[in-house]
Amino acid sequence: MLIIAEKPSVARKISSFLSNNNYRTIRFSKNIYYYFFNQEKRNIYVVPSIGHLFTLSDLDKKYDYPTFNFRWVPSYFEDGIIAKKYYIEMFSKFRNENDIIIATDYDIEGELIGYNILRYILNKENANRMIFSAITYKDIVRAFNNRKESLNFGYIYAGETRHIIDWLYGINLSRALTKSLFYYTRKFVLSIGRVQGPTLMLVFNREKEIENFKPEEYYKVEALVIKDNKKLRFSYIKDKIKDKDEANKIKNSVGKYLIVINVDKKEEKINPPHPYNLTDIQMDAYKYYKISPKRTLDILQSLYEKGYVSYPRTSSQRLPETINFREILSNLSSINSYKKYIVPLLGKQILKPNNGPKDDVHPAIHPTGNIPEYLEYKEKLIYDLVVRRFIATFYDPAILYKINVITKENFVYNYYDIKYKGWLDVYWEIYKNNFISLKFNIGEKLLVDKVNMLKRKTKPPARYNKASLVKKMEELNLGTKSTRADIVEILFKRKYVEGRSIKITELGKKIIEIFEKYYPEILDVNFTRKMEENLEKLENKPDISLKEKIIEENVEIIKDLSKVMKENEKKIGEELYNFIKDYLNKRKLKSN
Hints:
Elements: E1 2-5, H1 8-18, E2 24-29, E3 32-39, E4 42-48, E5 54-58, E6 70-74, H2 76-79, H3 83-92, E7 100-103, H4 108-120, E8 128-129, H5 137-145, H6 153-181, H7 196-212, E9 217-227, E10 230-236, H8 244-253, E11 257-270, H9 278-289, H10 293-305, H11 325-332, H12 336-346, H13 377-392, E12 398-407, E13 411-420, H14 428-431, E14 445-457, H15 466-475, H16 484-493, E15 497-498, E16 503-504, H17 506-518, H18 525-540, H19 544-567, H20 569-591
């Protein structure tokens, strides 16, 4: 029996769990190993890949466009990573094996990794499938004992189609841009992709909104009031005063005291958060620690492979009842920093998480209950986010008081007091400063320390940051949960965008300008979103004719696009060349 794993570390864990740690490590070549154990008189080999061992390649090799002549080839032909050659040779040893199990990550990429090994090295068309959402003893043994008889061909067709479409757009658009420049220079290679174009357009459109924004001046009047040795900021009830004289008049009318005439106290119930999906934790990691979405995913993947958290590439905000919540919480209670939050939960008869609306084949991200032996600093931060969110979802709602204080002089002060912490207790260090315990009485005189008239301007919409751009891509169904962070990083790498508060560069604007002029569809969010919807249909219902139809539709689009680009090649090249010359000269002057 042959079990195919996605990575060496996972192969080792699968071998350990299925053999009760009674396995043998076999060296294939320098630093490349596979594993062997015997179970019920069966010889079982667990052989790892290192991600994709095959990639798409252009058969023509003429550096012309449009090109549609592609095939799958060993990845090392294209990326030069020779180690992949040895992994292919290692799998070749098992060509005569008929009892095969794919145990790669259960998503479209993992399915395609396994399927390509199966068909291009082992000459097989199908295999058994282990499905797991965490790399723990229980999950792996359960997945092995309940393995499916077939691979998920919806995933395979959708994965292969996505690779083909992205390859077709990537190679043809990049060649179109670069070849137009060849009339003037061969020093530059420019590129854009199917999802990168609309994503760059989002940044460009936001920049236009900011540039076109006309700020309006207004005034605010604030009174600093002293109460219980605290300085409180009361604001005039009219938030934006357009007239300076009116604001001045209000400021000068304030006497030594403000007199309270109304205290409106309302109770609010705040439900606990939903369990984390990938985008949600990427948003929080950036918000609290400025860890980029790409880095967050990489850390989560590492924690997953070590067996500490569940599979991270999920859209789900739901934790199914099949997960042993009590056991996980009980294990986590051995960590001192979580114990005081977990003990009250273990006393509950029923543990029910506050599940959200979004679902997926994998559950929401959660700790497995395996206790980490050692974590690097950023791994600790991400692991802590996962654990606290998991704990918080089982807590009761928080109950707050929203208090609105109004004075005779038309000044207001709003604040929150806490009645019952509930789930907020798990995050109290973060949230405690949002709450104030104060008591106001009607008729109470509040001593005014100072009155300020503040000149303000209305603000344009904020620029995206890496996390909010990933979130916007999710809302618009651009890319996938696995690829969005990568796409944002590619835009930075190509110098199309820059800055923590993301701004489109002059080069990025030029790329937008070219395609807006000659082929705007490639920048259209709806164009790309429709493609994603078709791929989702294929994922849910494997149909070879639908796969071929999607590819053919895109081939026709690329033919049309290439025709337009070729007709305008010299003009496009001249525009790009003149821009690049000017762009480089400006940068040279700046550096001097």
